[in-house]
Amino acid sequence: MIIKPLWLGTFTPYAIILSACAALGLTLSWLLAGKDRDHVVDGGIILSVLILIGSRLAFVIRNFSYFQEHAWEIPQFWLGGLSWPGGVVGVVVGIIAVHLVWKEPLGELIDNYLAYYGLLAMGIWLSGWGSQSGYGPTTESWFGIPVKDYFGLVKLRWPLPILGAVLSALWTAGVIFYPLKRKLKPGFRGALGMAGLILINGVGSFFRVDPAPTLWGLRYESWLAILFLIALLAYLYLIRPEERNEPLIP
Fold first, then answer.
1. Which of 140, 99, 91 is nearest to 117 (CA)?
2. Strand pairing of 154-157 and 218-219?
3. Which pLDDT tens digit goes with each residue over 139-180?
4. Strands, E, within the chain: which ranges?
């Protein structure tokens, strides 16, 4: 494991970018909640803690052989080392936890934090750019960007982190603000937003070349993205807008 250079004496750029995006996402979620702002910030803090725990545990499990010999580094998440699939599990557990604590409807909770999901996904891509992870193949084309790889070498590579961040932001904004004619059930927008963000990360994982364990030729996050998408599509199908047949007027 490579220890990243620190900023402000303690935290890495990785941790600072993720924290800033999470704070901005939570603020936007609070603003967009309108009159239903009760417990948005409090619930967001619980959600953030569980996302952090889930993403860190997933990373530790994936690199268990390393952490067996460096157990003191397990809680040092600010050095880098978070897994977005573990973060997705943290989102699910966090939403359920907030629902149980404040008795808020699950569907509304899923919708309320859509801006938070999107900004956090954007932060994951941007923080990966500077933390020697999540990079794509090398290229000599004009669109190549300088990226430091796992071995500390700076090379021109596909702008994978920029594409991931931009697509995550555009998708989230589109789902939040695009006017739909049908009345959506609570939870539909939030689940649709999450499905798009997972799809972006899943497709992006096919182009990543940073070292990672694989299963049957695919990275673990690729398989997990497929499983998450299946679960979300099933949920979206269950809460899909119902078509209403209007009576014919003679």
1. 91
2. unpaired
3. 999 999 998 888 888 999 999 999 999 999 999 999 999 887
4. 145-148, 154-157, 214-215, 218-219
